[in-house]
Amino acid sequence: MISFSPTDDQKMMVESVAQLAKTTLRPKIREFERDRALPEAVRKTAHELGLGLVALPESIGGAGLGMTTAVLLEEEIAWGDPAAGFAFGGPGALGFALLELATTEQARVALAPFAGDGGHAKFGAVAWGEAKALADRPGFATTATKIDAGWRLDGTKSYVVNADRADTFVVFAQIDASKGWRGLGAFLVDKSAKGCDILPRSHTLGLDAASFGGVRFEGAIASARLEGNANFDAALVRFFARQGLVVAARGVGLVLAAFDVTRDYVDTRKAFGKPIGHFQAVAFTIADRAMDVDAARGLVWRAAAAWDVYDTDKSEANQNEALLRTAHAVAYTHEAAMRCGDDGVQLHGGSGFMRDYAVEKLMRDAKQLGLCAMTPEHADQLASAIELGVPLDPGLGLPTAETQNAFV
Question: Could you read off the pLDDT of 271-292 as tens digits, one per residue?
């Protein structure tokens, strides 16, 4: 029998996080937006709840609770503030990059600082995106060159989540230009490394409590190359898919938040003697968006369950099932988030454009959330590749400057 009921332990964790979202995040959503950060006390509470390491296995220092538990919690957090999941301390996308690409020892050492008492003040980051595509070849402009001291990195990375907050980066760079997107490598770089310069923080459309920026490398020496997986390309796709699913779970929280505030508004705002929600055109829109809530949630939960199966039995069939389900969840959820945000603004009328109501922020957040890892377009490409049996190609299924830039 198929069950969509969380376990008792999951329910307890969800209730704790939902309380944080309801009492701390949602009431101060505009304050966090104005300050462009979460207060230390809020980040510390999240760290005490163990949110940063939920999905990572115990073998590398994580909580070992799996992807299903992770997406349940991410959904609740994003209901409170879609930016909060990015703004909490913790490894962030770096954790999944280490899981898929590093050796067990590399991952354990790199993740250790996030588990300690001061973990709420530490951030990890992944430097993937670049602002411009190369004219003469596929691949990255950022290069990694082997030297006696290790690997030298040169180039500029853009759209990096928590670039100005992170202590440790996983940096993707070109090792072999002749191989294009199949000639990449991943490297650990400390923020303090000589030649590693953090660029000014960007002003973005939404998700203001999170931070997005760039990093410039001028002869920076990587502390290590990540070589924990023989099939680097497949591991790279899995990394993006895992992170993409977490972001999609945040999209589910945003969908629910936009639906909640809009439903409440149309049930209280009156015109011609009755609530506007009682008019058919408005009522049908609310019904459609309610379906988006359930459909997005179901797709994300199903994908998370597939990852938990894969992490138990790492067969190619289980991998492809997890990737396919993730692609479906990512593609649908981000489009649903835009529909719910857009319709929310529309149904609020002129009030929807005013900052007195949270719905305009949710619409802006929805647009940016769709760029924060695998995009809907790339999810479609990944799904079609798996359905048609096309070999996984990082240049086809992952965000690149030729197709669409992504915040990672």
Answer: 999 999 999 999 999 999 999 9
Query: How do residues 177-188 score in pLDDT, each as one tens digit?
Result: 999 999 999 999
111 phi-psi bin (left φ>0, alpha ψ -120 to 50, beta other): alpha
The answer, yes or no, to whether residue 1 has pLDDT greater than 60, is no
CA 131 – CA 230 distance, rounded (Å): 29
Question: For helices 316-347 and 376-388, what crossing angle results, to 10°?
Answer: 150
| Residue 406 backbone phi and psi in degrees, to 5 | -140, 145
pTM of the predicted model over 0.85: yes
The CA R_g of the chain, rounded to the nearest whole Å, is 21
